[in-house]
Design goal:
12% of the residues lie in helices and 48% in strands. With 170 residues, it is mainly beta. The longest helix has 7 residues. The N and C termini lie far apart (42 Å).
């Protein structure tokens, strides 16, 4: 079964020729602009949309899809999320990059093997990604996802090892 991952959202139309104004994940412009096909979901079915052209404008992408040549043809997709096959994203990941859903629920340990909690989410503060870790005391602590702190991520072993510097996780 093919898994799909959201990579953007059609926010509105741009002009009268059926061009879409698309929002996408910050810092992913190169990946998004390299796409030649995306999918929209309609009633549990993923419909392919071939990309004719993409250009960046401010913090958005202006996307022209093949076969959509007017505002009326695009309006049915307004508000729709755009998806790609998970394999497309995996090919673009570098060695130390992970999908968010791979990290959520992983247990977090310090370098001595003490369990500190588990990952409940991932966010970004503009400078770097942050792991939201629910500690043993049920508090949510933000852990910078940088090599100096997150020393090992073992997806198959379902655990993350961190350098628990003083004051990070009590």
């Amino acid at each position: 079964m093919i898994k799909y991952v959201s990579v953007g959202k059609i926010l509105n139309f741009h002009g009268i020729q059926g061009e879409a104004k698309v929002g996408f994940t910050k810092n992913q412009a190169d990946f998004f602009c390299a796409l030649d096909m995306v999918y929209v979901k309609s009633e549990h079915v993923y419909i392919p949309l071939k990309i004719k052209s993409i250009r960046l404008h401010k913090n958005f992408a202006l996307v022209k899809f093949e076969g959509i040549n007017s505002v009326n043809e695009l309006l049915k997709y307004k508000g729709a999320f755009l998806y790609v096959e998970e394999s497309t994203i995996r090919e673009a990941l570098e060695e130390d990059e992970f999908l968010v859903d791979e990290l959520v629920s992983l247990e977090v340990f310090d370098e001595n093997g003490k369990k500190l909690g588990f990952v409940v989410g991932v966010s970004n503060n503009g400078a770097n990604d942050l792991l939201s870790v629910k500690t043993n005391s049920k508090q949510i602590v933000l852990v910078p996802f940088v090599k100096a702190i997150v020393t090992n991520v073992d997806i198959t072993g379902k655990k993350i090892i961190i350098n628990n510097i003083e004051g990070l996780i009590e």
